[in-house]
Amino acid sequence: MVALVVNANAYAATPEGKAAAAQRDAKDAAQKLDEQLDEAQVAAAEKVAIESGEHCLSGWDGSHNDLERAVRTRLRNPRSFEHIETVRSPVDAEGKFALIMTYRAENGFGGINIEAIGVEVDVATCHFREVSNDEIAARLAP
Q1: Residue 50's pLDDT is what?
Q2: Which residues, listed in sequence order, are joined to residue 70 by a DSSP beta bridge?
Q3: Which keywords fit this entry according to its UniProt record (predicted)?
Q4: Neighbouring-strand partners of residue 118
Q5: How far is residue 129 CA from its own chain's centroid?
Q6: Using an 8 Å Cβ cutoff, are 127 and 107 in contact?
Q7: What backbone torsions phi and psi does residue 23 show, to the nearest 5 degrees?
Q8: Burial class (CB in 10 A: 0-12, 13-18, 19+), 75
């Protein structure tokens, strides 16, 4: 056992041992930098998503889940709800963005209607409030 430790120490003192140790240290440092870079990129992407309001919307279909639930509760047949599309405006200086969700649902006579609802969403809380179509159209206009 002692011979192994002595041989390892002797190898570490040779130019080859020093080069191998330096190479290991460089590889460890590069790996650590890569990890820090990955963490920084993830943090930057999360910050952009939060500032843009993307975190409030479903990654699957772009809908606002709380808005969907609220609309379903108003329907005569909540199971007939079908999300068609969600269109949104950029975030304004107050940290809010407009959203129009178009959906299909059954009416009181059994027919299918296409409806839309416009809301204003707060980026910080993801809470929404219903607003007029004129206000939404003004925000979505280029």
Answers
A1: 60
A2: none
A3: Coiled coil
A4: 100
A5: 21
A6: no
A7: -65, -40
A8: middle
| Encoded amino acid at 73, one letter | T
Phi-psi label, residue 106: left if phi above 0, alpha if psi -120 to 50, beta otherwise: beta
Q: What is the pLDDT of residue 45?
A: 58
pLDDT of residue 44: 57
Q: Hey, where are the domains in the chain?
A: 2-51, 57-140
- In order along the chain (142 residues), what is the average pLDDT of each group of 10 residues? 52 70 75 72 59 83 92 93 92 90 92 93 91 74 68
Nearest CA-CA partner of 119 in 73, 75, 56: 56
What dihedral angle (degrees, nearest 10) is formed by the CA atoms of 128, 134, 138, 142? 110
pTM of the model: 0.61
Annotate 62-100 with DSSP letters as a single string: S--HHHHHHHHHHSSSGGG-EEEEEEEPPP-TTSEEEEE
Instruction: Supply the Cα-derived Rg of the chain in whole angstroms.
Output: 28
Helix or strand holding residue 22 (H, E)? helix 15-52
